UniProtKB/TrEMBL annotation:
UniProtKB keywords: Heme, Iron, Metal-binding, Monooxygenase, Oxidoreductase
Binding site for heme: C478
UniProt keyword annotation of Glycoprotein present: no
Pathway where it operates: Secondary metabolite biosynthesis
Essential cofactor(s): heme
PANTHER family per the UniProt record, alphabetical: CYTOCHROME P450, CYTOCHROME P450 12A4, MITOCHONDRIAL-RELATED
Protein name, UniProt field: Cytochrome P450
Superkingdom to which the source organism belongs: Eukaryota
Metal-binding keyword on record: yes
InterPro entries named in the record: Cyt_P450, Cyt_P450_CS, Cyt_P450_E_grp-I, Cyt_P450_sf, Cytochrome_P450_monoxygenase
Family label: Belongs to the cytochrome P450 family.
UniProt GO MF annotations: heme binding; iron ion binding; monooxygenase activity; oxidoreductase activity, acting on paired donors, with incorporation or reduction of molecular oxygen
Length: 541
């Protein structure tokens, strides 16, 4: 630990003058909560809040939809839930607002130079290479896979229910294994075998709790050390992968473990692609291997990027979806009347399928399950797993606001000039609770709001769909959002038709604990359980 303290203080001394020279410029006229600590600003309070996002909601009530907080080392952070400001930074500015190194580099240490961590032109190249794998028709072709894996999960639960009638289970752990199998097959034609081995595989174990282990409740020393990364040149930062200490060894071990899997998958799949069997394929594996072989630098991925890409997709593509699905089922358990309506809707659709001769639901069948679609949207709105994302201005700019705020001197501010280096933080969770956008009951889980709100007609549109920011927005928005959405539709169709979901026998409270830019569900008072959404299920009568 002393290493962190030392490194933290060295970086303070080195960059003290740099920071001082920035004083007097910037966003001092924007109101915000007073800072208790020069060194930590609000950073420690934010990362240690009970419920992820609750401080932001409180500040938003007090200061309006845009406010100023303090980061580590006395820096100013422009925090906002304002849709126009977020639209400007995420949708309209291209790479002129970049990822914040101290946030991004944890991902780099974990996955390497994959699509989620590379910047600027490199990112453009990765995105172009991956794009064909995420087109709507390509993704619809995965529906049978989603149905096969959700069916497999369903069979496992059914066989346990025969004996007991009811079953208490850790919903997120089951779903995480199922979604790991899904991404393995969908992206790499590879069976991670996570559902069958009951979570005993090295990979399921390696991923388990990774976000909590690495980002949850960091010590003061780690907070300072991490913040200092924003001032350290990237080549030096890359050496940090050799650092001792818990989060770093945890990241490194997972990275090493995945490399073994990645190499094995490449050995399995490489010959198939080389044999031109899939030369026209738009699946991820074919695209990646072709990119690796490309002679054109604009469409090429080197060996390190190739493995990083595979790791990134595996990581970004499973726990995100399983956590969101766990929250849908948790909310359905809390809202049995809605759950019953949803089941009726699914049964009616099933009757239509049987009438036309049977088979599985098609994407068209799933898309008209309005109550199911709305339950997914509402859960994405109220329980965004990334509660907000920081960006850093690359150049001087002016950020427009849709909702003016009152400055420290009482003036009305409807645009905010910022200097290069200004940290901007979009609070997705606060935006998604704005009463003006979502209604007076914005703090409640009520999917029927989507029957009355037409998101397409809302004045400022953001994000990738339904005016939600849960998948982020703009050129770095989640590439897998549609994949995830269809996967969730397929799983809910299967699971809600077959099972009833109840709150667990033992009364527990779910806490949405902050972890980095994200949120991890844990049982209140029992963080040692790791990420946890316990529920009880029974067979539908
Ligand atoms: C409910 C499920 C999901 C949620 C809420 C979600 C959310 C997000 C968010 C917030 C980002 C932006 C991160 C940042 O800028 O730091 C992101 C990026 C990304 N997501 Fe997802 N995601 C989900 C599912 C998936 C799936 C299923 C895949 C892959 C099949 C995927 C692949 C990616 C990739 C590759 C990126 C990086 C994009 C880039 O930087 O260009 N995600 N996701
Ligand atoms: C980014 O900034 C440059 C330089 O000021 C400008 O020319 C360019 O149009 C900006 N890009 C976007 C997408 O706004
Ligand atoms: C990727 O390209 C490099 C350099 O051409 C080559 O050595 C390597 O074997 C390729 N990797 C795969 C998995 O095909």
């Amino acid at each position: 630990m002393s290493l962190y303290v030392l490194a933290g203080f060295i970086s303070i001394i080195i960059f003290w003058f740099g920071l001082r020279s920035r004083k007097g410029k910037g966003i001092k006229h924007i109101r915000g909560p007073p800072s208790q600590s020069f060194l930590f600003g609000h950073e420690a309070a934010l990362i240690r809040q009970e419920e992820a996002g609750s401080l932001e909601y409180q500040w938003m009530k007090e200061y309006g939809t845009t406010w100023r907080t303090r980061g580590v080392f006395g820096t100013d952070v422009l925090m906002t839930a304002d849709p126009k400001a977020i639209q400007h930074v995420f949708h309209k500015s291209g790479y002129n607002y970049t990822k914040k190194t101290s946030q991004n580099f944890v991902g780099w240490l974990m996955a390497g130079p994959g699509i989620a961590t590379v910047l600027g032109g490199d990112h453009h190249r990765h995105r172009k290479i991956m794009h064909p794998a995420f087109s709507a028709p390509q993704l619809r072709s995965f529906l049978p896979l989603f149905q096969r894996i959700s069916g497999k999960l369903s069979e496992k639960w059914k066989s346990e229910l025969v004996a007991t009638g009811e079953l208490d289970l850790m919903m997120n752990k089951w779903l995480s294994r199922a979604t790991l199998d899904v991404i393995g097959e969908a992206a790499f034609d590879h069976d991670y075998n996570a559902l069958d081995d009951g979570g005993r595989s090295k990979l399921s174990k390696g991923y388990e709790n990774i976000f909590k282990d690495v980002e949850f409740q960091p010590s003061n020393a780690v907070i300072l050390f991490r913040a200092s990364w924003d001032y350290i040149p990237i080549p030096v930062l890359k050496l940090f992968r050799y650092l001792p200490g818990k989060p770093f060894t945890r990241l490194r071990n997972l990275n090493n473990l995945f490399r073994q899997y990645g190499k094995q998958i490449l050995r399995e799949q490489g010959p198939a692609v080389d044999a031109e069997r899939k030369l026209d394929g738009k699946d991820v594996m074919t695209l990646l291997i072709k990119a690796n072989a490309s002679a054109d630098a604009n469409t090429r991925l080197d060996d390190e990027e190739l493995i990083a890409e595979m790791f990134t997709l595996t990581l970004a593509g499973h726990e995100t979806t399983s956590t969101t699905l766990s929250f849908v089922l948790y909310e359905l358990a809390r809202h049995p009347a809605y759950q019953a309506r949803m089941r009726e809707e699914i049964r009616a659709a099933r009757a239509r399928v049987i009438a036309r001769g049977g088979g599985e639901f098609t994407t068209e069948d799933l898309d008209v399950l309005t109550l199911c679609v709305n339950a997914i949207k509402e859960t994405l709105r109220l329980h965004p797993i990334a509660i907000g994302i920081p960006r850093v201005a690359v150049k001087d700019d002016v950020i427009p606001l849709s909702r003016p705020v009152v400055s420290t001197t009482g003036e009305t501010v409807s645009e905010i000039p910022v200097k290069a280096g200004q940290v901007f933080y979009a609070s997705f969770s606060a935006y998604q609770r704005l009463p003006e956008v979502w209604g007076e009951d914005a703090d409640e889980w009520n999917p029927d709001r989507f029957l009355r709100i037409e998101t397409a007609k809302q004045p400022t549109s953001v994000g990738v769909f339904a005016n939600l920011l849960t998948f982020s927005a703009g050129i770095r928005a989640c590439i897998g959002w549609r994949f995830s959405f269809i996967e969730m539709q397929a799983f809910l169709g299967e699971l809600v038709e077959t099972f009833q979901f109840h709150l667990p026998t033992e009364k527990v409270e779910i806490q949405c604990a902050p972890a980095g830019i994200g949120m991890v569900p844990i049982v209140r008072g029992k963080p040692e359980l790791g990420s946890a959404v316990p529920l009880r299920i029974s067979l539908v009568q």
